[in-house]
Amino acid sequence: MLIETDVLVIGAGPAGSSTAKHTALNGADVIVIDKKSEIGAPKRCAEGVSKEGLKKLKIEPSTRWVTKELSGVRLIAPNGTGVWLNEEKVKLPEAGYILERKVFDKHMAMDAARAGAKIMVKTLAKGIRREGDYLVATLETMGEEFEVKAKIVVGADGPESRMGRFLGLKTTLKPKNMESCAQFEMVNVKMEDPDSIEFYFGSVAPGGYAWIFPKGDDIANVGLGILTTETDKSAYDHLLEFVKNNPSTQNAQPVELNIGGDPVGGMLKELVTDNFMLVGDAASQVNPLTGGGIIAAMEAGVYAGEVAAAAVKDGDYSAKKLSKYQERCEENIGVKFKRDLKVKDYLQSLSDEELNSIADAFQDIELDTINTAELIKQLIKVSPKALLKLGKLF
Ligand SMILES: Cc1cc2nc3c(=O)[nH]c(=O)nc-3n(C[C@H](O)[C@H](O)[C@H](O)COP(=O)(O)OP(=O)(O)OC[C@H]3O[C@@H](n4cnc5c(N)ncnc54)[C@H](O)[C@@H]3O)c2cc1C
Predict the structure, then answer these.
(1) Residue 99: half-sphere exposure toward Cβ, Cα within 13 Å
(2) 159 CA distance to ligand 1 centroid (A)?
(3) Any idea which architecture 2-44+102-173+265-345 has in CATH?
């Protein structure tokens, strides 16, 4: 069987569904496939998004997929000293929501379908080849192989993406650019403030951080990301230790385990080639500092969809035409990620003792508002090392 379409999107995560929606809204035929039988499940995510991010994407929060509205953040040093950033102390424009990704991802796919995209679930992409001015993808569903011939293929196939490599893009990541993550969704979690998200820094999660993200009632995502270049233990072993030692999880029980990679090395240099674009985790469009990629994946999906539809209209699927997508991503996502990558490198260079003394210094700091840039500015004030490494950036 051979199906023809203007655009084929591989992967129906946030990146793929957003791409498919905006391709369809701009008038091109689009098919989006996912190997999963249920879009969004299992999740590999702590499910936090900023309100600002959703607003920018013009996505109205829905009670179907928001499990918790957050009102604060707590940053915890290795010795347990907490820096509270909550609405009593400071305005929090970046406060956000905890999602139910299994529901959210499905709803984003539904939005794509409502815009006119065709969705195929339990459909695996096995390979792509070039045929004249088209790409032909080999797919498999329910044991049957078939092919899709497309003018443009979008690789939105997540952190283990293979599609770009098939077409010669350099997508292999160095170990220092891929965090290894492990997370339990737990019940019976007793947080000091169940409306705040918590980040734990230092040797608890070498090369990354640990988190507790509340999902309402006594439920929370409890996880961490590490760099394998910084520790001999696995992310799962670090997680077991974290849960054993953290006061909030003494009586907690896991109801779900999520293991996965998070590409935190900054956006890939090459996102397009003839007839092809990479979007989302497949393009390393993850904030290197926070590891968050949902909003960036969906923003890039908007650009990819608009550029793909314009290319179809003009009958030009060349890398040159599609490079407009790369330009928009670099301008709107890549520049900030480059700066955040430097902040991440600085944070990684700090010992537990240095982190403890920064947390002490932060106790007396007065903030009017809070976002990442403001936090770094304050960090520069209290840490001479931060001034040296980050002073020029802020
Ligand atoms: C433990 C952990 C915690 C995280 N926490 C957060 C957080 O709190 N906030 C945040 O913003 N981000 C977080 N992230 C990152 C976030 O999950 C990703 O950035 C986001 O899911 C990227 O979306 P995506 O669509 O690019 O990829 P994905 O969501 O991974 O979607 C890719 C899709 O492609 C499909 N696919 C893959 N290969 C094929 C194939 N060959 N054929 C067909 N389908 C295929 C997969 O089934 C999948 O559905 C976290 C990541 C991890 C690992």
Answers:
(1) 27
(2) 7
(3) 3-Layer(bba) Sandwich (3.50)
